[in-house]
Write a structure and sequence with these properties.
Blueprint: E1 5-13, E2 16-17, H1 19-28, E3 34-35, E4 48-49, H2 70-85, E5 98-103, H3 109-122, H4 131-134, H5 139-148, E6 155-157, H6 163-176, E7 181-188, H7 193-201, E8 230-237, H8 239-245, E9 252-261, H9 273-283, E10 293-295, H10 302-316, E11 322-324, H11 335-351, E12 353-354, E13 369-370, E14 376-377, E15 382-389, E16 393-400
Parallel strand pairs: 5-6, 5-7, 10-11, 10-15, 11-13
Antiparallel strand pairs: 1-2, 1-8, 1-9, 3-4, 7-8, 9-16, 12-14, 15-16
Helix pairs in contact: 2-5, 6-11, 9-10
């Protein structure tokens, strides 16, 4: 009996809106990091970001624009594309057999920021009524559910950058409980001055002004990451239901998942990422030798890179499985990163190619085989995606070919 199948994908990324546009940019190594354009970041220590260029009015009805944050517009566009890709329309399933699970790390920061400005500048009567929900972590789930009539089990996961994997895992749980289809994944975006202050406070942003040197995981020059926005939404279906309805294509199977939580730094206890990876392998009934590529978290913080590399080596041995971090092209997308990595892994399986980690000169100190330079052509049956959230969240998810 196979696990749930991914039958549709929608991508909104700094280097491409739409699955094929994004994938072409990734294979070409097209970077999308540059100076912040959405607000004046000149007074901050960090001034680079990866923004999504999207004319929301070209995709969404005008009534939705005043009630949604930029982040939610990205999520709505991705969800609509994913459902269209899967050929799911009203009536395909009973509405109560379909749900939504998304991940978020910030909510609608830009919307909330603008409404707070109105409150202090002009008074409470000038604050939009939509502020009551547009800022909320669960708003993407709610808006997708309403727009597409998805009335089944739904929710939101808040585990920072691990959230995209955790949301997909929660989607799988709902399918095991009887749902037939779950729209799942993560789209994030808090590139506004308020969100920027919060990101700066985390102490992990790169302060380089050179887009080619600002985000360098597993590199001796690593000094933090570049934030971005966007992510991916997947249509995840019960395997039997997808086959019964004749889903037009299947990207792959959600085969295994595991999670762990690191102890507090002051405890002196070691990190536990390897436990999440081992749990995912056990869940998938697979051995380390069955994994053809690893999509790493790639924090670009030396201590965290060392933890991840050594924990990978603990499970897989030294330099035995190719590792890649495609998001060096477009930054870390908070809760959207891991979901986009899953979409990228499924495309890698489909086309038999491992995308490269751009800009990075891997340090020999890290015991992993990092793919750099050009994409590597090879048959891929299974891929492991790793995601780590600020505060100790570790998640690992395995996708494999359903052929």
């Amino acid at each position: 009996m196979s696990g749930p199948l991914v039958t549709g994908m929608g991508v909104v990324a700094p280097n491409g809106v739409g699955v094929e546009a994004y994938w072409s940019a990734v294979l070409a190594g097209t970077p999308a990091i540059g100076p912040v354009r959405r607000f004046d970041a000149s007074g901050y220590p960090s001034r680079l970001a990866a923004e999504v260029d999207l004319d929301a009015a070209a995709y969404l009805p005008s009534r939705l624009l005043p009630q949604t944050d930029h982040m939610t517009r990205l999520a709505l566009v991705a969800a609509e594309a994913a459902l269209a890709d899967a050929a799911v329309a009203p009536g395909t399933y009973d509405p109560f057999d379909q749900g939504v699970v998304t991940a978020s790390s910030a909510g609608g920061f830009d919307f909330g920021h603008r409404e707070l400005e109105k409150l202090w500048r002009s008074g409470n009567e000038f604050v939009s009524a939509y502020q009551s929900f547009a800022w909320f972590y669960a708003v993407n789930t709610g808006q997708i559910s309403i727009r597409h009539g998805l009335k089944g089990p739904s929710g939101v996961i808040v585990t920072d950058a691990a959230g995209g994997l955790d949301a997909i895992a929660q989607a799988r749980r709902q399918l095991r409980r009887g749902s037939r289809l779950i729209v799942g994944g993560g789209v994030d975006g808090s590139l506004c001055s308020w969100g920027w202050v919060a990101k700066q406070a985390g102490g992990r942003l790169s302060e380089s002004d050179d887009p080619a040197r600002a985000y360098l995981p597993f590199d001796a020059r690593a000094a933090g990451h570049v934030p971005g926005e966007g992510g991916a939404i997947l249509v995840i279906e019960d395997a039997d239901a997808a086959r019964d309805r004749g889903a037009p294509h299947v990207y792959g199977e959600i085969a295994g998942y595991g999670a762990s939580f690191d102890p507090a730094p002051e405890s002196g206890l070691p990190p536990t990422l390897h436990r999440a990876v081992t749990a995912a392998l056990t869940d998938a009934a697979m051995d380390p030798s069955d994994i053809d590529v690893i999509f790493a978290d790639g924090a670009a913080v030396p201590e965290l890179d060392w933890q991840e590399a050594t924990q990978i080596a603990t499970v897989f041995g030294t330099r035995s499985v190719p590792v890649t971090v495609p998001k060096t092209m477009f930054g870390r997308l908070d809760a959207g990163s891991a979901a986009l990595d899953v979409a990228t892994a499924l495309l890698a399986i489909r086309d038999g190619v491992i995308p490269a980690t751009v800009h990075v000169e891997p340090s020999a100190d890290y015991p992993i085989d990092l793919v750099v330079g050009e994409p590597v052509r090879r048959r891929i049956r299974a891929a492991l995606v790793i995601a780590r959230g600020h505060g100790g969240f570790n998640s690992a998810l395995i996708v494999r070919s359903a052929a």
